[in-house]
Amino acid sequence: MSIFSRFLPKRKPVEIKNNMPKEKATIKKTFGIYCHSHHKTSGDKLCPQCQALLATVMTKMNRCPYGITKPICDRCDRTMQCFGSKQAQEFLHIMGTSQKRMFFSHPIMTVKHKLASMGVDYAKYQQAKKVDDKVKAKEEAAKKRAKDRKAKK
Ligand SMILES: [Zn+2]
Questions:
Q1: Which end of the chain is more exposed for a tag (fewer CB within 10 A), N or C?
Q2: What is the distance in A from the centroid of ligand 1 to the CA of 97?
Q3: Distance (Å) from CA 48 to ligand 1 centroid
């Protein structure tokens, strides 16, 4: 368990924020840094391969089955299913190798992204708990119905 799960439940209920625009901005910046240093591009321009991969990532993100409660893509357990294994590997490679460079050019953004990745564990815990609660509620309801039936007899 991360420290997040220990501290957060004591606060008021966590509101679900849409972090997708921020995540997209972080990914775009990271891709830029990677492409500029590896493929000799500059400014807002990316090489055709990086541009294509970035476009795929953005599209897949919009179709994320988790919706706005999604964990960040480079920490998600569905990255392979979403992007396909080849593109997922390229994506994770770019996100991984550019982390250091990213930190020096955009420290705050990098720290926020890191925090988001820690929050993933907490979000997963919450999602699992919700399912648990639903199952329990169903079981309770079934028990109650059984009782009612007995009472009628
Ligand atoms: Zn490139």
A1: C
A2: 13
A3: 7
Q: How close is the Cα of 36 to the center of ligand 1, in Å?
A: 7
In this predicted model, what pLDDT tens digit does every residue of 78-107 receive, in sequence order? 888 889 999 999 999 999 988 878 888 888
Nearest to 26 by CA among 100, 89, 109, 90: 109
Rounded to the nearest angstrom, the distance between the alpha carbon of 50 and the centre of ligand 1 is: 4
Do residues 75 and 120 make contact, with C-beta atoms less than 8 angstroms apart? yes
Determine contact, residues 34/50, Cβ cutoff 8 Å: yes
The shares of helix, strand and coil residues in the chain, as percent rounded to the nearest 5, are 80, 0, 20
- Domain residue ranges of the chain, discontinuous segments joined by +: 18-107, 117-153
* Cα–Cα nearest to 74, from 140, 129, 30: 30
User: 78 CA distance to ligand 1 centroid (A)?
Assistant: 24
Which residues have CB atoms below 5 A from the ion given as ligand 1? 35, 39, 47, 50
Give the pLDDT of residue 134.
80
pTM above 0.85, yes or no: no
Tokens, residue 9:
């439940």
Count helices and strands in the chain by DSSP H and E runs: 7, 0
